[in-house]
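S.,

Sequence below, as promised.
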Amino acid sequence: MAVKKAPKRNVEEEGWEDVEVDQFKFTDVGDQVEGILTKKGTSSFNTGSYTVALDDENSVSILGSVGLDQKLAGIPEGTLIRATLIELKPLPGGKTFKVYQVQRKTA
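The prediction came back faster than expected:
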């Protein structure tokens, strides 16, 4: 097998535009994202991968975790959600378990 590198191109000349989605990471208690859950998938780390549209032009990508994946499992794409990091629980070995509150708009 071989690796073939594509030639470098000036994409602006060809009429292409970069699409960027910011990565949102819950780090501090109170961190929150609210928007339409537009995409659910699985990351290469075997956790959930989610895209949340904040408005018509801006979206964020969120890498899941055990706690977040469990709460988002039953929520279908297209639902208005709000996810908030509400607690950081210390675990043995210096790790931290993140506790989330996930809400969905029902009306």
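The radius of gyration is 17 Å.

Coffee later?
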